[in-house]
Amino acid sequence: MPSPKAKNPGRSGGSPVLGSSNGRYEFMSLTKPLNRSSPPHLLQRQGSDPTTARLRASESPTRRRGSGSSTGSASGQGPPEEDALSSLLAIDLWLSKQLGVCACEDSSWGSVRPLMKLLEISGHGIPWLAGTAYCLYKSDSAAGQEVMLNLFMGLLLDLILVGIVKAVVRRRRPAHNRMDMFATFSVDRYSFPSGHATRAAMCGRFLLAHLVLAAPLRVLVLLWVGLVGLSRVMLGRHNVTDVMFGFWMGYCQYNLVEMLWLSPQTLQGLLGQSA
Ligand SMILES: CC(C)=CCC/C(C)=C/CC/C(C)=C/COP(=O)(O)O
């Protein structure tokens, strides 16, 4: 979402060009700082700190194209799948930076930031866990308790699975993100996948399958899921691929919740065994 008010058009301008990318090593720096044993010309090109490296990586892929002839990772020298992946990541970083228009108050769409933060809270784990626990406590029907209990289990499962993937992949959040989220775990310094996107997708499916039947409300649920995902990128919290993968993961997590569904009989069995 490029805006004429964008502050540094030179840094983030340009357009993504599909095809060969000769800066594959730049994406490695997204997850870990360059190795001390890296050749000096790499260190020089990257900048010595990871933030500079990530800022360079989010420049337009077109800007990076003819700049790596001395690196030995020029296009066509690696396997084609790696080139394709590098190009995809280059487009991802470029697009995410273009869309990160609410990353801080003085960003081009900074005035919308409070609204985006409201969406952030609406998809945060704490309100969802607390709200579900409250409904579970207040529910006076067995069917209601069953649904709420399974939603609660799904939310816990989501936190665990997202935590595991974040800890394994360890992709840093975009350089333009301001880390001012409330109540985060240590793995939440990583961005892949977006926990808000997994939760929104899983809870969205759950709501549509078990709780929300009226058509206008179902549309609202879908709209909320989409807006939560979009707000992650606009706030600069995530790259586009973090959110896309998060949606897919949340969609699959709902299948898992259905497979592991705790029925009253299962619960009675479990409680009976432990008694
Ligand atoms: C009771 C309990 C264990 C609550 C934990 C809830 C909690 C702190 C969830 C983390 C939510 C969060 C900030 C996720 C990060 O989302 P991203 O979309 O930025 O990956």
Topology overview:
Layout: H1 9-12, H2 24-28, H3 40-46, H4 50-57, H5 61-64, H6 80-99, H7 113-122, H8 125-138, H9 142-169, H10 195-211, H11 215-234, H12 240-259, H13 264-274
Helix pairs in contact: 7-11, 8-9, 9-10, 9-12, 10-11, 10-12, 11-12
Bound molecules: the ligand CC(C)=CCC/C(C)=C/CC/C(C)=C/COP(=O)(O)O.
Report what the structure shows.
The protein has 275 residues and is mainly alpha-helical. It has two domains: 12-99, no CATH class; 110-274, no CATH class. Helix content is 61%, strand content 0%. Helix 8 (125-138) packs antiparallel against helix 9 (142-169), helix 10 runs antiparallel to helix 11 and helix 11 (215-234) crosses helix 12. The structure holds the ligand CC(C)=CCC/C(C)=C/CC/C(C)=C/COP(=O)(O)O. Residues 124-126, 129, 159, 181, 183-185, 188, 194-196, 232, 237 line the site of the ligand CC(C)=CCC/C(C)=C/CC/C(C)=C/COP(=O)(O)O.
Strand count, sense and closure of the main sheet?
none
- Gyration radius (Cα, Å) is 22 Å
Strand content: under 5%
Global morphology = globular
Task: Count every beta strand, where a strand is a DSSP E run of 2 or more residues.
Answer: 0
Overall tally of domains: 2
Bound molecules: the ligand CC(C)=CCC/C(C)=C/CC/C(C)=C/COP(=O)(O)O
Number of helices: 13
Distance between the termini: 58 Å
- Which series of helices and strands comes N to C? HHHHHHHHHHHHH
**Class based on secondary structure composition and strand pairing:** mainly alpha
Helicity, in percent? 55-70%
- Low-confidence parts: 1-58, 60-75
Mean pLDDT: 79
